Amino acid sequence: MKGIIFTEFIEMVERTYGFEMTDRIIIGVDPPSKGIYTAVGQYRDDELYSLIDKLAELTHSNVPDLIRSFGMALFPGLKRLHPEFVDAMSNVFDLLENINDHIHYEVKKLYPDAQLPRVDCDREGNERMTVRYHSHRPLGDLAEGLIRAVIHHFQESIEVDRQDQDSVGSHVNFYLRRFQ
């Protein structure tokens, strides 16, 4: 997994829970990286899962809720690093429709070894969209948080219904409905 995910996760923990909590989860997990992450580095997926599990344990939180919160926190960081991807879009549906063919395409040029999820969209007019998330990682909750952050960014009134297609969250359908 790309280091940007780790650096943004650590920043979220520091902002939300403080530096002491960040140290506690890193010490508690004792990851192979020793908690030293760079945005362009490559780290094992299970290292992130362990950090999330430890944070949930120490904060008495629900893991899916933490991952969704991380997705919400991740979007502004990604926008800050690559504003050209977001600034070129005028609304939620446009951004989501451009993930695979434009955003992930450009990400692969920058990071050829990145293993990105597939995000397929079917738009039904201007009011409805189905977003299908497919990944080898069980991060449907992260995808949901990112979708909700995009909605917040564009300040649109969109309802999100979720339907998991497997038991681990690696294949999830999101049904978006725009309302006035």
Task: Describe this protein's structure.
- It is a single chain.
- The protein is an alpha+beta fold and 180 residues long.
- The protein folds into 2 domains: 3-61; 91-178, H-NOX domain.
- 54% of the residues lie in helices and 16% in strands.
- It has 8 helices and 4 strands.
- Strands 1-2-4-3 form a 4-stranded antiparallel beta sheet.
- Helix 4 packs across helix 8.
- The longest helix has 19 residues, at 63-81.
- The protein is globular.
- The model has no long low-confidence stretch (mean pLDDT 94).
Largest sheet: 4 strands, antiparallel
How many separate domains make up the residues?
A: 2
CATH homologous superfamily placement of the largest domain: H-NOX domain
Radius of gyration: 16 Å
Poorly predicted runs are: none
CATH class of the largest domain: Alpha Beta
Broad shape: globular
**How much helicity do the residues have?**
40-55%
> What percentage of amino acids are in beta strands?
15-25%
* Measured distance between first and last alpha carbons: 38 Å
Mean pLDDT rating: 94
- SSE string, helix = H, strand = E? HHHHHHHEEHEE
How many strand elements? 4
DSSP summary: helix tally: 8
Corresponding CATH architecture of the largest domain: Alpha-Beta Complex
Strand order of the largest sheet: 1-2-4-3
CATH topology of the largest domain, what is it called?
H-NOX domain
Structural class: alpha+beta
